[in-house]
Amino acid sequence: RRVHGGGGMSGGWCGAAAPYLYRNLKVPAARMQTYKAVYGTPWATKSFLGFISDTLPILGLRKAPYIVLSTMCAVCACLVLGFGSGLTSAVVVTCCLFLVNNQAATVDLLSEASYAARLKTFPHHAPSVMTFVWGGIFFMQLVAALSASFVIESLGPNALYFFIVPVLLLIIWPMWDNWLGETRAPSRACCAPDLSKLRREKKLFILSVIVGSVSLSLAVLNIIGLPPLAQLFSALIGAGIVLGGFYRLTIPLIAKVVTYGLIQNMFTLSIDSAAFYFYIDTPEQYPEGPHFSVFFYTTVLGVAGATCSLVGVVCYKRFMQTLRFRTVFLASNLLYMSVHLLTVVFFKRWNVALGIPDSVFLLGSDALQTIVQVWSYVPGLIIITQLCPEGVEATMYALLAGSSNLGQFLAAYIGAFVLSTLGINPSGQPNESAMFENLWIACLIATLLPLIPLMFLNVLIPDALQTERLLPPEADYGEVSPDSQSPELLPSFALEECRAMPSEQFDTDTNDLGGDGDGSGDGDVGSEMCIVRRPSTESLRAAKPDSPLLEPV
Fold first, then answer.
1. pLDDT computed for residue 362 by the predictor
2. Strand 488-491 vs strand 507-510: parallel, antiparallel, or unpaired?
3. How distant, in Å, are the alpha carbons of 81, 405, 418 from that of 222?
4. Of 186-195, 218-227, 275-284, which range is least confident?
5. Which of 69, 310, 338, 496 is deepest in the core (most CB within 10 A)?
6. How crowded is the C-beta side of 426, counted as CA atoms within 13 Å?
7. Is the pLDDT of residue 350 over 90?
8. CA–CA distance from 41 to each of 101, 188, 214, 291 (Å)?
9. Measured between alpha carbons, how far is 47 from 215 in angstroms, rounded to an integer?
10. How far, in Å, CA of 371 to CA of 332, rounded?
């Protein structure tokens, strides 16, 4: 219920009104792109909250109090924006939007952490649960899109934030009534830090600090106005720091998936602020443009996008949930690049030369892109939920999802650099046609960049089904002691690595899902993992010296 109401509707309204707030302030496209990345930062800093909620209960609860506090801050921010039609500072607007997004990220994280814990026990339900959750979000985004343009056109974009307030407050009663099913801590520990968990999960804490610090540092640096080239280098350095932390502090499987998610999002370049001005500039501002109305851009495109998201979820559920992760990511990336070429055609205005109306062409291309993006997004969520160790779901989910979200904001910073470099910086001023001359080039760059993550797909993503358990129940997220004599578990896609090693180096057993039942592993193995008893690091390296799955972290 929280997901359907608060997440979909308030997020849809907030996202619809935000660009119009900046347009009223005549903010250039590259700068708007930066501001959007800044106010979206809470989606990358969820690791901080995940760690705090796991280690510091409030009144004996680990989730509900944080949701309530963030909601009250967001309500205050919405009231400031609602009454702030005379605001002249884009920085103030960005800070308020930051608080609204912080509430959405908080509720999103802590509710997802609850069902992530259950999906680890019942991984075969993962596709169905994700379909239900995101189908609900897309439906409420559809409702928000239907109503947003009427408010913006009649009352102005600021007024829409008044309507967000009651939607945000809907979350209070479910938290008060403990719909998350939390167990209250004993009275003597109701507000005491769980230092035992802090000591036990030191690596998660360090990773939380790394991801959160990088995200916040980039936000602060960019809101004060970094030059475009400095934006690019700061984004790349930030990505390198985060990935270095994961490779140093987690097992290779997790580090590789994080790497793919981050570079996948980082190279899905964001130039939507320039596209916003391209679409809605008036004839006085851009005589050659499509001159879409607020109703068409916000409601028609919004409704079409939400509807196509639902179609994408249904198609994924029907045709793609049984595919392997690699297959889904490969197909969705190639399809995305293909349909994104239609936007290049639109920015070049070739559709007009072909006699295709702007509205028809954009609706068709947007619909295809939205469906394909859903096919990539849903399995990305599934693979994240499969990598959350027991007992620290909120923290690990925050780290994995936060690092993936960080890639999106890095894409916005890189997009701002591309817009500035190509001279694409419209701001709603009269006669700014020259600002759009190179927009098709930026779009073409954005179309081709997804080839980069595909080059590393087979290295970074496991060759596993979406319903398979990726982490064995006993696995720790952290480093493995290579000299330990206890059994260590490897995912099923590591079976080949195990079999490639000389048999005298170790004893191998496999569970008998599909085997012959005698534990010897000589049947047709369809199991999720193999158990490898490793006598020493030296024997491992002698057998398979360059295998990343068998190297100590």
1. 93
2. unpaired
3. 22, 17, 15
4. 186-195
5. 310
6. 29
7. yes
8. 8, 35, 10, 31
9. 10
10. 9
Measure the CA–CA gap between 82 and 77, rounded to whole angstroms. 9
Q: Give the separation between CA 39 and CA 30, rounded to whole angstroms.
A: 15
Chain mean pLDDT for the chain:
78
Average pLDDT of span 314-323: 84
Mean pLDDT across the stretch 294-310? 86
Question: What pLDDT score does 529 carry?
Answer: 36
Give the phi and the psi of residue 509 in degrees, each rounded to 5.
Answer: -125, 150
Beta strands in 263-359 (DSSP E): none
Which is nearest to 235 in space by CA: 445, 399, 413, 34?
413
In order, the DSSP letters of 421-486 are HTT----S-SS-GGGGTTHHHHHHHHHHTTHHHHTTHHHHS-S-BTTS-SS-TT--SS---TT--S
Query: DSSP alpha helices (H): ranges in 156-201?
Result: 160-169, 172-176, 195-200
Residues 6+ apart with CB under 8 A from 520: 509
pLDDT digits (tens, 9 = 90+) for 123-151: 676 667 767 776 677 677 778 878 888 88
pTM: 0.76
Coil, helix or strand for 549? helix
Please state the φ and ψ torsions of residue 235, each to the nearest 5 degrees.
-65, -45
C-alpha distances out from residue 106 to 44, 62, 112, 371, 493, Å: 11, 12, 10, 27, 34
What SS3 state is found at 529? strand
Q: Which of helix, strand or coil describes residue 551? A: coil
532 DSSP β-pair partners: 488, 508
